[in-house]
Amino acid sequence: MSVVELESVVKRYEGGAETVVALKGVDFHAERGELVVVTGPSGSGKSTMLNVIGLLDSPTEGRVSLDGRDVTDFSEDERTEERRSELGFVFQNFHLLPMLTAVENVELPSMWDTGVDRRERAVDLLKRVGLGDRLEHTPDELSGGQQQRVAIARALINAPDVLLADEPTGNLDQATGRTILDEMTRLKEEENVAIVAITHDEQLANYADRVVRIVDGVVQ
Asked: Which tens digit of pLDDT belongs to each residue from 42-76?
């Protein structure tokens, strides 16, 4: 069973007299422990597809499933809970809070969950991405590659089923990007998480289990 699945997903945006169709009957799936890279030109629908998978946007038509459950018509509160518990997000610009340390940034998504030792897991994740000696450093004391490692650890703190990455190497030099991709490859296997990454970075495709290309809202 696929951990995430889109079936015949259509997404339309109404803009006055004009209707933009960003996704045109998209079918997509990803399995646990798999890295799926989504490529395509700017404006092709990559970000829209990622937002639909991440429950940040709703399809106009079609079906979205997470771990075999139909989440298409979930309320906003239900979608928020799904994002918190089942999904992790990694962004091009890291989105770390500058006043918090590395370990505090990683802990942040689990702050309201009193049933887990979030500090212990945050420390463990940072050690696993090679930042055991940077726990108390703030983002301005970290390199770009180190900040992205913190962001990956933060995305994994709630043990999600799916990790969604938006240009995860976009702000990094090529060598640092390769280091981040090595970390993501190792962690997807250790955490048994599906990773869906959209990118213009050609080297990311070399790490993929599958590459999906989308053009003008259609999966090729």
From this structure: 889 999 999 999 999 999 999 999 999 999 999 99
For residue 114, which amino acid is it?
Answer: T
**Superfamily of segment(s) 4-219:** P-loop containing nucleotide triphosphate hydrolases (3.40.50.300)
What whole-number distance in Å separates Cα of residue 184 and Cα of residue 199?
A: 14
pLDDT of residue 116: 62
Residue 22 CB partners (closer than 8 Å, separation 6+): 11, 12, 13, 45, 48, 217
Sequence-distant (6+) residues with CB within 8 A of 7 are 27, 62, 63, 64, 65
3-class DSSP assignment, residue 25: strand
Single pTM value for the model: 0.92
3-state secondary structure of 142: coil
Q: Tokens representing 206?
A: 């070399």
Domain boundaries, the chain: 4-219
Burial 44-60 (b: 16+ CB within 10 A, else e): bbbbbbbbbbbbebbbb
Contacts of 186 (CB under 8 A, 6+ apart): none
Rounded to the nearest 10 degrees, how much is the dihedral formed by the CA atoms of 57, 63, 65, 69?
120
